[in-house]
Amino acid sequence: MPRTNDVGGLDGFGPVVEELDEPPFHHDWEAHVMAMNRALIGQKVYNLDEFRDAVERTMSHESSYYENWFRAIRTLLKEKGVV
Amino acid sequence: MSDDHDDSAIAAQVRDLEAVLEEKGLLDPRELDQVLEAFAAKSSPANGFRVVARAWTDDGFRTRLLDDANEALPELGLSMGGGLQPQVLHVVENTADVHNVVVCTLCSCYPLSLLGPSPTWYKSPAYRSKVVSHPREVLEQFGLTLPESTRIEVWDANAESRYMVLPRRPDGTQELTEAELAGLVTRNGLIGTAAV
């Protein structure tokens, strides 16, 4: 069965909405999540493939992009017994 | 998009986790700024604009770029390295008959170093689901209407492979310098949701 993230060709996600002059991050915490992820991969707490896998199996289309990242990070840290 | 209440809740959760990771020595509070500075310095669409302008003005470079982009980029002092893992870049050229557009149906794979931070719409399920099944319709949402005779090719990026579109050089630009040509290119043109 395809994972939730595998959306190619599916219907029902509505129109594509383009935000003009979009900033790289909409909230400060999003930048923190991105930097935290890079640091944890750099520290070899987990690797990039593990992170992708965690996003794909824990993501929700109801959540924003970086909310999904944060959920994946927390899942991995829990599974690896870090926190 | 989350409302303010949700964002203050998640912001607090992020701070709490940072504090725990700092205590465990896994995160250095000074690292955040360094990571963000490096991210901003290495990721700019101006890099992609320069690549396109060079390809428009130098046929030899254009050929090398289309043949092996990773080998050609260092000619402009650019590379696909510096990320978390090496990536192969494929540059796909628009012609009178073919228009290319890039997506990552599984997640958000994107050549950050050449295009800058990716826009939310590129990462949205709406774009990722639809551009592969109804590309013409999606391009029209971006204001790009292509002749029926133009074939649209959709390229699905992944963890190891990234794509960038080489737009067609606009007519009447023979007199422009390379720098002026770079100024004509847009981020969406490099993704394929704009003509240039």
TrEMBL record, chain A:
Q: Where is the signal peptide?
A: none
Tell me, what's a Pfam family for it?
Answer: NHase_beta_N
Residue ranges of the Nitrile hydratase beta subunit-like N-terminal domain?
Answer: 1-83
Q: Which domain of life is it from?
A: Bacteria
Identify this protein by name: Nitrile hydratase beta subunit
**Protein species of origin:** Lentzea albida
Automatic annotation (TrEMBL), chain B:
The question of whether Metal-binding is a record keyword is answered with yes
Q: Would the keyword Metal-binding turn up in this protein's UniProt record?
A: yes
Mind listing the UniProt keywords for this protein, alphabetically?
Metal-binding
**GO terms, molecular function:** catalytic activity; transition metal ion binding
Recorded hits in InterPro entries, A to Z, give: CN_Hdrase_a/SCN_Hdrase_g_sf (IPR036648), CN_Hdrtase_a/SCN_Hdrlase_g (IPR004232)
Q: Which residues cross the membrane?
A: none
Q: Enumerate the spans annotated as Nitrile hydratase alpha/Thiocyanate hydrolase gamma domain.
A: 9-194
Query: What is the protein's given name?
Result: Nitrile hydratase
Upper lineage ranks?
Answer: Bacteria, Bacillati, Actinomycetota, Actinomycetes, Pseudonocardiales
